[in-house]
Each structure stands twice: as C-alpha cells, then as structure tokens.
C-alpha cells in the first residue's frame, strides 16, 4: 500500500463570453484506490457538479464559468493497494475468453488506429512468446524508438505520426503502445495520473498518461514513456485514448496557464512511509 | 408501435485453424424495443454465449468455431415503440447540460475524427438556428453531397475520406454526419440495424448503419444515406462508430458469403398491420 | 515595366559539423524579368557556385559552410516587364492542347494532392464558365475560406490540411489553390518571391509564395493569400510546390535567424518611378 | 548490349463524349538505349503527336479519340547498352556535390513523402556504410517486408501506406524504396518499363515500375519488387513517382481492357542472342 497526497492548481482566464469546463482531475475511486479525503476549491462561486461517466467510472467535474480569472484547486489523499504479480506467470487472454467490458479496448480509436498497424505489429511481435513479456517487449520497443520531447506533438498527433516521427510526450508514447497492442488483439487502454518520480530535468511535476493492458484476469500498468515510477501512479481516468480521457475539456475561449502539480508519498496510518520505487514486477490497481 | 419480424442467415467457411466470432446481431432490448421472441441456430454444435457489453448495452454473441461450414441463423419478432416529437420543438443541449453518458459522443473516434472538421462544420453550420433543424441540415448536407455506391470504401475509410471522395455506403454517410455533429459539440453516435424499405435497385435487404443524435432529452434517429425508412429501423447496437459496432468481428481466417436478411412489418396483437412510412417528424427509440 | 530593388540578409549559426546549403534567392532571369545588377556577399570565404536547375530554370546558390556565424547578403536590381491581359479574353486550355512542359503541372505533388480533391473541385467549380474567371473564383474561394495566421502550419501541412483547418500562411494558400486547379486539369505551379506591399501588421517584409496558372498561352500570376500586391512580385523560383521551390534547403544542424528583406520600386532609366498597384487585369511575367 | 523487341497492345472503349489521351509508351531514346525501329498503329484515324516532355525527356503520345473502340499498338526494337559497375566501388554523392538536375530527386513527392520517413530511415539505415551497398540494403529491406499482391493498392496509395500495409505491386515497392532513399538525401527516381523475365505465376507480361538511384556519377537501376530481371529492362519514362510517369493518362470516360504486352531478347547484328540474366553487378542505362 502506497499513500499519496496530491495537489493540483489550475489557472485560467475566461474570456468575455464565459466557458464550460469538464475536468477529470478527481482521483478515481476503485477497489484498489481509496480516496481518504479530498477537497475542491474554485476561486469563483460557480455551481459545479461531480458526476460519474458510466462507461469508465471517471469522475467528471463540470461547471460553467463567467468571464475573469479562474483558479481550480484540488487536493486529495489516497491509498493505492497494488496487486503485484509475477510477469512470467501472467498470460495473454485469447479473444474468445475476454470479458465483454475488455472487448472495446481491442478496437481502433481516434489516436490509436490499430487497424493500420496490424502488419507491422505482427512482423515485430507476432512470433514472440505470448504473455506479459510480449506486452513488455512492445513497451520497450516504443520506449527505445521514441524520444521524449515537449512541444513536438499536437492534439492531432496519432500513433501513426509517433511511429514515424519517433518523438513525443507521454500521451504519444501511450497511444503508440496501445495501438500496437490492439493490433494483435491485446486489450489496451489509456490511463491518466501524475508523473510521480519524473526526472526534474524534463520539467516540473505534471499530469501523466500511461497504459493499462488486460492480461490474466486484470489490467496491468505500463509506462512506455519511462519517465516516471509506475508504483507512484494514482489514477484520474481511463479511456480509449486521449480523446475521451482529457484532464480538461474547455468549451469557449480561455487562456490557460501551466498547471502547478504536486504529488508526495506520505506515511500511512501505521506511521510508515512506503516510497514508490522502480520494480520489475507486474503492477495492477484494477479491482 | 411497429411490429417487425427479422431473419438473418450468415454463412462462413472456417479455415483449418478455427476462428473466434463476436457478433452483434441480437436485437437490442430497450425501453422502446421489446423483443417478443427470438431464436438462434448454429449449424455446428458450438458452445456460445450472449453477453451484454456494459457501456453500450449491445448484446454480443460469442463463440469459437471449428473448421468447416458454419451457418448462423437468427430470427426475432420485436415491437418498436417510437417516441415521436415535433422537430421544431426539439432544442440542442448546451454542453454544460449534457448528461455524462452523452459526453463521450462529442469526442472524436477512429472513423469520425471530428477534431479535424471543426472549422468546416462551423463555416457550414455554425450560424444556423440551433436545434433539431440544424442537425437535419447536417444530415441533408451529407446526403446531398455523397453518392451511394457499393465497394467504393474500405474498412479504413474515415469521415475525412468520405468528405473528399463524396461517395460511400451507409456506414460512410453515418461517419461523416457523426463527425460533423461532434465537430460543433452535438453528441452523435453510430447505430446498426436493417435497411427496411430500401430500394431493391441498391441490392438485397442488408444490414444498415444510421445515426442517433442527442437532442432535447433523448437520442433521435437520422438516416443520412436516405436509402431506407427510419420508422422501420430496429436496433442491434450503438457505439462511437463502426469500430465498436460491427455486426461481426472475426478472429482467424474465414471465407464470408453475402448475408441473407429479411425484415417485415407484421400485424400486432390487435391484428392490425402498421407499416413504417417516411415521416417528417422526429423519431426516437431511446428510452 | 516595374523596376525593383531587393536586398536579402540571412543569418545562420552553423554547428560544429558544418552544413551544406542550397538557396534559391537569386532573381530568375526570364524574358520578362531582367536582372540589371546583382551582388552576393558571404560572411565566410566559402567557395560557392550558382547553377541553373534545368527543369525549372531556378538559379541555385550552393556551398558548404564551416562551423560558425554565416551571413548571406544578396542584392539585385531588376526590371519586370509584365504581360497584361484582359481576364475576360483569356480562355482555359483543353488538356489536348497543353504544351508538354505544362502537363507536369496538372499532376499531384507532395503538398498538392489534387487527386484527392477532384470531387470537391468538380462540385465547387465544375460547372462554372471556363476561363480566367474560373481560376479567379478558385483564388477567391481559397482566400475567403482561409485565415492568414503565422505558425499555424508546418513543413508537413498539405492542401488537405489547409482545406480542413482553414488557416495558414502564403505557402498554404498557394498549395490549396494549386491543388484545386489541378483537380480540374488546370496546370498550376508554385512561385516564390517577396511580399511587396504587404500589410506591415502581418510582420516585416518577407519571402512570399504565390501561384502561376497556365491560361491562354502563358502563365498568369494569382495571389490567393491576398496579402501583397502582385504587380510588385519578382520571381526567385517556380516548382510543383514548396517541396522543390524552397528558399533555403539546409543539410546539417543550423540555427536560423529571421531573414531581413527589403523590396522597393525605384525609378527606371527614364527617371520615372512606376509603383506597383492592385489592378484588376491579368498579369504574367512568363516569357 | 541487349537487343529487345517489344510489342504493346492497348484496348479501350471511348464513351460518347470522346477522350484525350497522354501515353508514355514510346521507348526512351538515350545515350544507352537506341531505338532501332518503332511502329505505332492506332485503330482510328486520329491525328496524334509524339512530344518530348522537356524535364524528363519522356516521349509522350497525345491525341483526342472519338467515341468507339480504340486499339493502340506500339512495337519497337531497341538496343540497351548497359554501364556495368562494381557495387563495392560506387560511392554515394554528398549533397554538396550532387549535380543540379539530381537535386529535385531528393525532395518529397505525392507518393514518396520522404519528409515523413526521415527518422525511420535514419534508424534503419543511418549508420550503415555509405555507398551502393546501403542503397542495396534499402532495396532488400523493402523487398523483404513487402508482399507482392495484385489489387491491394489504389491510385492513392503512398509509400506510407505500403510501409504499414506491407503489400502492393511494383509501383508501391518503388515508391517505398524511393521515399526511404530521399529521406536520407539520396536522389531516387521512378522508372517505367516492362517486367522482363517475371514469373508467369504473377500474371502475364505487364508494364513495370522500378527505381533509379544516383550514385557515383550516374543513375543505377534497382528493382525492389524483385519480380523481374533488371538487365532486361527497357525504359519508357522517368519521373518523381507514378504521378508524373504514368503509362496512360486519360481525360474522359473510357473502359479499359488489360494490356497485352510482349518483350523478347533477340539476336543482335552479329547474330548472337544475349539473354538478360540476374547479375550481382550494378547496372545503369543512364548516359
């Protein structure tokens, strides 16, 4: 069990016509991620609601903001109870055995057009031993070929672009890994959190995107960008790709400032501090 | 209320290694679509299951088939209770008021990259009166610009291709209309059924794809291909686009024959035959 | 006749491994563009050569530069003798009558994939009166739909992107217009020069890209970006699109500064200053 | 020296409005390809002309045909005098040393968007020994990864599609090899001829597309499809890609039948028959 304390500060300047916001910055509440306490503060007295998006369980914060400065603060303390498995014992699941809720994650999506990558994925990974290690090899392949570089991709960059340009940020690494997994019928989905443990040389603590792959009987975490420590990940949302898993979707003209984000491992109820570390085992925060 | 009787016959030759199948050819069971009776027959004694895909409610037929001939027969009788609205009274829903389950249908998907179409959709439809009539004008625009022609599109054809090539089949019309709606933040989804009332000159009765758009307080049907009679539509599945709403997804090498499909309006319990007809009102089969 | 005096200053920092340069910043020498004098200065004592690219006649400046600061200065005085035609008298040329050297300009190229735009161009322009006015209507259509905005496009932006995004710089306007012309078999090519008369609000005097279309018996100039005064254009190069008509192609790692460019109309031999102006007639500088 | 005799028969049905044709089915006349005799027969008494396209030297046959049956017959006897080099002695040419007429062949074109493939080409080939052998390894890489299959590509298929789909016909192999060469600044162009020596299992004798790469001081032939015997190639045309090197470009509605093509090595003036064979040396038919 890892206890994490997070703090997010988002600053906007809403233009004259006002804007509607949909955030996914509330920590997910799952069987393995317990939110102990959380606090949301808006700098403007707007009526907001927090709703569950039914297909994903993502918690959406929604409101309409009038013109002017807007600051959103979210703080939470949460316990992450990892399931820890042995990579060599975790098999892939034949399509015929996949649970129905995993099936949608083998289909192509906006940024993960896996139908275009079938031949390439078969060539690179088709003959590998099937199981967790094959997915790890996809993760390694993406990481090895792709250079992390800010401002090299846009909101239109798909996995095909990242395959060719070989550069991107965490979301691009995730899209490419997801697309390759789906291309050989392995369910893979997009997950969002915070880049716990990231090298400060890459910039301040930030939101993060990583991958969950369905293996054995659950979803396991992979971090193809390799920039952070997966054991320190907490989850905001899951989805097919960045299209349905954005931290913030804004309708209207808004000036956005860089987010200020903090994440710390803190001592648990027993007073012990368990620090996330790079570990070679298979991690899942799925139910 | 319309009572429909449908019959589907699908023929395959499964190659030596066997194949896994996922079908979505069971009539959806919704508040407005009652399945009175249904019957599934497989020509081989395979164990199958019918599962609900949780995010869509689609009913998935799944099984593994051994090599050899395979025939799938599905027959059903169902009552469709339409909600019928007055187009001029049906408003669009501001993003801030959309129910959370409708939100995912404003995001781009594999075949409906609506993020690429924002400027074009704003130019064409941005200044129109908002409401059902604006969506109808999108439907008409797609139909007017696009020619129905078999074998002009492939499994990789997206709404952008259809916009440029101006030709396609029902699925392509649907993708383009969906992408244009989403581009201006109107939730739109892909629905599958049978092309009731289609002109025989276009070929034998076939599966059909159409569009559902969230307006007022429910999803309304639109048929941008204009090839069939929406009042005669029954629903198999709904989804973001053809990627997650396929009639059949086949894993393994299979030779496929053309489906043999029949749909008839039949007399209801009161002995009256209510025949679907082209009607200028707004139709919904959503709960 | 317009006499123009141009001055170009380009500054680079060549990295440790040195770089090869190919410039196309020498004024073209054609039957209608006479270079009276010109002067090239390089801040480093490198051996350079100026060569004619045979298929285009473009004059290419080529050299290898060692590491360090590099400044390239080019100055020229030239007379442009326009052919001035009456738009209403200039016909399109049937494909069968096109001279062989114009044929290549009806084929698709990297940034002008006209094969993808045939249907759209036919719908928009197919039934218009054929002649200069149809080409003008393509030019107007592009200008009306597209917003000039710096840094909205990249070196990968094609005419299809500009069609969708409806924003770009002069090169993007030119690509879209060229692609639409070729899509209906009208030869169109990319031309480069300086944006004489551009609104200073768009930034300092800069390189410019415009379009030449083969009509009647020669190539006529069009400026779809509408940012400058065509009568003040001088020509560096022509080509199929920006791929083969770059001002500078650099092989190796180089830091590039913004160019400093000046263009002035000056008095001719007779002491008279003829100032370029926006004129409604058809202009050609083609031989 | 190889003496070749070729015969081409093309059959069309021109629709009611007539059609304009541009063919490139005349054997090129170059310093190393001598046309000894040739004969063109058209089944209709149309006025035609044969013109040189100036930038390529391709010989274009052009005419307008009235409605009805049209048969085009072209027969020629030609001598191909190969330059034969030793692969290990043929270097790549630094960009700074490329002749100006080769420069355009390092730029991207419609079907060879080499700008998109720079990273991938650098990864695969960037660190190889530079010279003929590196180009041969690109040729081998394309051949090894791509499956020859008719009707898997269309007139819109680019090198990126072939890279992903890993299937195509000779033109697709050529586009991918060209794009990869240009991506690392090696000039490469598209060449057309007849598939001398092709395996009859792939179909009857047909037109062929192959690649010429500028190395040392000339253009060398490569056949990435590997379906034919390069020593038996004669040249119709050269160009940037299939966009400007089509065998036939037809303007108007025409029904096209499969071409009937024959090519034979025949005895030379000395009575000796020199048969083309697969040879491991570098072949050029360039001046």
Give a structural overview.
Four copies of one chain form a homotetramer. Chain A has 287 residues and is an alpha+beta fold. Chain A has two domains: 2-81 and 247-266, Immunoglobulin-like (Sandwich), CATH 2.60.40; 83-244 and 279-284, C8orf32 fold. In chain A, 16% of the residues lie in helices and 35% in strands. Chain A has five helices and 17 strands. Chain A has helices at residues 100-103, 118-125, 132-145, 159-165, 170-183, and strands spanning 2-14, 19-23, 33-42, 48-52, 59-65, 68-80, 83-85, 147-148, 167-168, 188-194, 207-215, 218-222, 237-239, 248-251, 254-256, 260-266, 282-284. In chain A, the strands form five sheets. In chain A, strands 1, 3, 6, 15 and 16 form a five-stranded antiparallel beta sheet that branches. Chain A has a four-stranded antiparallel beta sheet with strand order 4-5-2-14, with no helix packed on it. In chain A, strand 4 (48-52) and strand 5 (59-65) form a beta hairpin. In chain A, helix 2 crosses helix 5, helix 3 crosses helix 5 (170-183) and helix 4 crosses helix 5 (170-183). The relative contact order of chain A is 0.23. Chains in contact: A-B, A-D, B-C, C-D. Chain A binds chain D through residues 116-117, 119-120, 123, 145, 160, 163-167, and chain D through 116-117, 119-120, 123, 145, 160, 163-167. Chains A, B, C, D: This is Transglutaminase family protein.
């Amino acid at each position: 069990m890892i206890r994490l304390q997070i703090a997010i500060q988002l600053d906007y300047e809403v233009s004259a016509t006002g804007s509607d916001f949909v955030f996914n910055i509330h920590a997910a509440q799952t069987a393995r991620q317990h939110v102990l306490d959380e606090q949301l503060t808006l700098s403007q007295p707007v009526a907001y609601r927090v709703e569950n998006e039914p297909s994903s369980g993502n918690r959406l914060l929604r409101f309409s903001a009038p013109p002017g400065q807007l600051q959103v603060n979210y703080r939470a303390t949460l316990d992450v109870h990892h399931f820890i498995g042995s990579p060599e014992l975790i098999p892939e699941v034949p399509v015929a055995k996949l649970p129905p809720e995993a099936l949608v994650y083998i289909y192509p999506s906006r940024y993960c057009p896996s139908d275009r990558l079938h031949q390439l994925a078969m060539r690179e990974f088709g003959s590998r031993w099937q199981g967790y290690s094959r997915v790890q090899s996809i993760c390694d392949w993406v990481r090895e070929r792709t250079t992390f570089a800010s401002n090299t991709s846009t909101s239109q960059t798909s996995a095909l672009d990242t395959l060719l340009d070989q550069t991107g940020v965490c979301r691009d690494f995730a899209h490419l890994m997801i697309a390759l997994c789906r291309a050989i019928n392995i369910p893979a989905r997009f997950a969002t959190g915070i880049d716990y443990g990231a090298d400060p040389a890459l910039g301040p603590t930030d939101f993060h995107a990583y991958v969950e792959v369905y293996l054995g009987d659950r979803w396991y975490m992979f971090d193809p960008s390799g920039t952070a420590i997966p054991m320190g990940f907490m989850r905001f949302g899951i989805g097919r790709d960045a299209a349905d898993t954005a931290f913030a979707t804004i309708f209207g003209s808004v000036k956005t400032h860089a987010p200020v984000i903090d994440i710390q491992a803190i001592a648990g109820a027993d007073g012990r501090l368990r620090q996330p570390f790079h570990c070679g085992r298979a991690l899942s925060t799925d139910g």
